[in-house]
Amino acid sequence: MARVKLGCLISGRGSNLQALIDACADPTFPAEIALVLSNKPGVMGLERAVKAGIPTQVISHKDFDGRPAFDAALDQTLRAAGVEIVCLAGFMRLLTPEFVTSWGDKILNIHPSLLPAFKGLDTHQRAIDSGARFAGCTVHIVRPAMDEGPILVQAAVPILDGDTEDSLAARILTAEHKAYPEAVRLLASGKVTVEGLRCRIDAPTDETIHFN
Ligand code: GAR
């Protein structure tokens, strides 16, 4: 069966991209990466893609007069590459409502908190400061508002006494690298129906949605 084509949008290190590259290396995984697009040149995520033999392109937001023109260039490039699902993997730009709406339920984002808690930046320190006992990551379908949209997969990790921003971020990142491929697997295999803010998953197992 044909594999679903992913377009991965990155801005930096690309460790979540690497998790997707590794997942796609399994021929039974239902998706493959058609293109890695970065809004920044020279980032480590681009090197990871090149090493894996995946086409890359840099589209710098600085070359465009405003978000609509930048997003139109992204859109054109993704569609020309035959992309069917867009994966935001540490892509640190807000997308316009027009872009988001035109892709329907086919854009995924990973965020390092248990949404809807701690949207935005500085999530790890804010989670520690809140006194919460758990933090984690969320993979969700993207809607125009930042870090909002139907939640597909979450993984929780404990916040330990003595945790720093860095130690918590590292623990969450390990969970991110399992959660993102799992979310892509579910969406790409057509197992997800979106109903308002809920994702209904055909034949879920407890492990596919709540693992950590
Ligand atoms: C990840 O922790 C991801 O969850 C976060 O940026 C990091 C990217 O790391 N994304 C956001 O904060 C988006 N709101 P990576 O480049 O190594 O995948």
TrEMBL record:
The keyword Hydrolase does not apply. The record marks D147 as: Raises pKa of active site His. Pathway: Purine metabolism; IMP biosynthesis via de novo pathway; N(2)-formyl-N(1)-(5-phospho-D-ribosyl)glycinamide from N(1)-(5-phospho-D-ribosyl)glycinamide (10-formyl THF route): step 1/1. Pfam families: Formyl_trans_N (PF00551). One of its GO terms (biological process) is 'de novo' IMP biosynthetic process. Residues 7-184 form the Formyl transferase N-terminal domain. InterPro entries: Formyl_transf_N (IPR002376), Formyl_transf_N_sf (IPR036477), GART (IPR004607). It is an enzyme of class 2 (transferase). Catalyzes the transfer of a formyl group from 10-formyltetrahydrofolate to 5-phospho-ribosyl-glycinamide (GAR), producing 5-phospho-ribosyl-N-formylglycinamide (FGAR) and tetrahydrofolate. This is Phosphoribosylglycinamide formyltransferase. It comes from Elstera cyanobacteriorum. The lineage of its organism: Bacteria, Pseudomonadati, Pseudomonadota, Alphaproteobacteria, Rhodospirillales.
